# Entry
Amino acid sequence: MTDQETETTAAPTHSGFAALIGATNAGKSTLLNQLVGAKVSIVSHKVQTTRAIIRGIAIHNNAQIVFMDTPGIFKPRRRLDRAMVTSAWGGAKDADIILFLIDSERGLKGDAEKILEGLKDIRQKKVLVLNKIDRVKREDLLALAQAANAAIEFERTFMISALTGSGCTDLLDYLADVLPEGPWFYPEDQISDLPMRQLAAEITREKLFLRLHQELPYASHVETEKWEERKDGSVRIEQVIYVERDSQKKIALGKNGEAIKAISTASRKELSEILEQPVHLFLFVKVRENWGDDPARFREMGLDFTK
Ligand SMILES: Nc1nc2c(ncn2[C@@H]2O[C@H](COP(=O)(O)OP(=O)(O)OP(=O)(O)O)[C@@H](O)[C@H]2O)c(=O)[nH]1
# Structure
């Protein structure tokens, strides 16, 4: 078969972003592990500073499905939290499709109900995913599906068990089909460490906020620029903290570099624990004006691909 023939006969590829939303314990991490497999979706990392982190990428049929996490949507207490909530919903709005995951045993109580309310303002396609069906009677499931669909018009309702995998292939089939036609975002061999890179950036960003939350505005951003696995089993990670002004750079560095040193130590410690390998972390602080308006940055964060 010639190249041309291959091109014309191959089924079109699909790709897109699926935002996963659900109350704590709904089973998001379990579902990601089920859909994505392997260690790429690092479980249960609760970083409140996340805007839109890619948690894993599934390849199914001809589609590349990029799962985004949008945490911090619930119970905003402080001002900081409220701002994060806004951006978390922003992350959802940038997805092609939203998967609303409910723990069927808990039903629509508490956070799930609040999320359902919030979803009303989002124009994206929404899919209802009732999880933990292994623990719930069928008639209760149907009642729950009905109640949620009465509040919002979901495109589809799936009933799954993230734990056993029941119903998960149907969900993947659907996503692969419904996501826009187009080339994949990431080469297949590159996707395995992409969530790791982003997660590493989020961890440093979290440490940055923990140390400097009053002093440094939201206009800072961390990127993992290099990720090098070494023969001795350690990994060398280089990250850049982008700020908008020189004055912010001074804050990030701190007096005699104390701030950056503390941030680096805290981040390295956590990264070594998560990755289960020694980490050499190198942090740089760079000034980049208006990074917030730079579409290339958004693209790296997994947002704005569709525009
Ligand atoms: N029986 C059953 N348990 C499940 C299922 N899916 C997840 N769980 C369990 O529910 C608990 C919470 O699952 P997680 O995947 O950590 O939930 P999460 O939504 O990621 O939680 P946060 O990280 O706290 O937001 C874990 O004990 C899982 O084993 C399922 O389909 N059936």
